[in-house]
Amino acid sequence: MTLLVLPLQLISDGSVVYAEALWDHVTMDDQELGFKAGDVIEVVDATNKEWWWGRIMDSEGWFPASFVRLRVNQDEPMEEYLAHLEEAQAGEENRAGLGLLLGPGLPCKEQMRTNVINEIMSTERVYIKHLKDICEGYIKQCRKRTDMFTEEQLRTIFGNIEEIYRFQKKFLKGLEKKFNKEQPHLSEIGCCFLEHQTDFQIYSEYCNNHPNACIQLSKLVKVNKYVFFFEACRLLQKMIDISLDGFLLTPVQKICKYPLQLAELLKYTNPQHRDYKDVEAALNAMKNVARLINERKRRLENIDKIAQWQSSIEDWEGEDILSRSSDLIFSGELSKLSQPQAKSQQRMLFLFDHQMVYCKKDLLRRDMLYYKGRMDMDYMEVIDVEDGKEKDFNISVKNALKLRALAGEEIHLLCAKKPEQKQRWLRAFADERIQVQHDRETGFSLTEVQKKQAMLNACKSHPAGKPKAVTRPYYDFLLRQKHPSLPTALPQQQVFMLAEPKRKTSTFWHNIGRLTPFKK
């Protein structure tokens, strides 16, 4: 917790007290004060130890005291002020003031670590209460009203919050065991985060579902009986005056706050402290959890685009692309030779996780693709081929690589126009295997509901019986993707060039244009 004595004392003396926001505060109520990390807030009332009343320009409202660090003025952070007090060879008055703030015999950095530890413990207990209130105050009551809610609706609104509640109770017990009540600065809590770093990944499902929860909830609260019901649940559980959507935002905020809290804890932990290495490792672990959640969110946002891409491909055969894949790794045009014909064909290749789809361009409508087949990348090995004579196909090749089945005689030879294109494809194939392995380790997969919904949305965009619009679906799809291996600084035109190699001008279209009414 931030120091309470100082703001009360200074405010009562008529001084202006400022606080610096450590974290973003997303407002849940019109009486709350929203701010971003780094904002400076004037503290008007600090009589309540949990919630303070503050002002930013013309806005006023309540905000959590644990979200801020006190500042003596707008330019000097609180810890610098305390350090000046500690170092100053001042008289008894300053010494007494310092003792009041820091307690007997505690150096400044250890007191700041105590504050952060206390804040982590305090916010964790408050969070558990929020989760309990949601599970027992809302979900339990909703399940009794089968006339108002289906299990599917409740799953959409509340996601896996009950699973999160069970985990967080176990996590808090671990923290309590490591918390040193007499000397909080000696607490060693870093190991608790490390022990449960995999368990925190359950937040991924909740965060990905949260937008759907908001949509479902907004539909229900348009009907008065649901508004009255939710308010009755809140009052019965004696919950604070925050709407249900505000409570449901809490887990999203919480998982984002852990790296910030751990960064603050590491800042005030001496390298010689027994907890230092664990806190440092815990910070990296929780940053990785946040990155994983963001990556899964991106993947789930992309499945609609992948389904729409598939619906734009003519003559599609076999299972849907989403049945096994959920991410486009790379794509481009290559010359493809396959045994036994060994005839070179220009193909547009789309490398997804687990499989690669290859298509043929329409001769006249170059933006239209025809499905020609796919390869199962789980059972293929990629071989770099040297320039010169290729023994399997008995031809001279340049900028080539080979895909060969691990079992059987299936072989495909792929040739690029330039050496850098070939190298880019080799990296892409390596990235695909890394992605698959990472998904296995983290347990990422699409649910059947997600797959069906994405394909259903794609079908709606192409109603049966109506011709598909002549668009550039796969180019648009490529440009919308965030390829992790492509430099994000590249302008779109350059990214487009990677997806669609430039062709030399041909007289073919000029000649055929004079003979037919078709246009390229």
From TrEMBL:
Which keywords describe this protein according to UniProt?
Answer: Cytoplasm, Guanine-nucleotide releasing factor, SH3 domain, Signal
Q: Name one GO cellular component term.
A: cytoplasm
Which segments constitute the PH domain? 327-434
What residue stretches are annotated with the DH domain? 112-296
This entry's Gene Ontology molecular function terms read: guanyl-nucleotide exchange factor activity
Q: Where is the SH3 domain?
A: 14-73
Domain of life here? Eukaryota
Signal peptide bounds: 1-19
Recorded hits in Pfam families, A to Z, give: RhoGEF, SH3_1, SOS1_NGEF_PH
* Gene Ontology process terms (BP): intracellular signal transduction
Q: Which InterPro entries match?
A: DBL_dom_sf, DH_dom, GDS_CDC24_CS, PH-like_dom_sf, PH_domain, SH3-like_dom_sf, SH3_domain, SOS1_NGEF_PH
Show the SMART domains listed in the entry: PH, RhoGEF, SH3
What's the chief localization of this chain?
cytoplasm
Give the subcellular location. Answer: Cytoplasm
Query: Could you tell me what this protein is called?
Result: Rho guanine nucleotide exchange factor 4
> Organism, per UniProt?
Zoarces viviparus
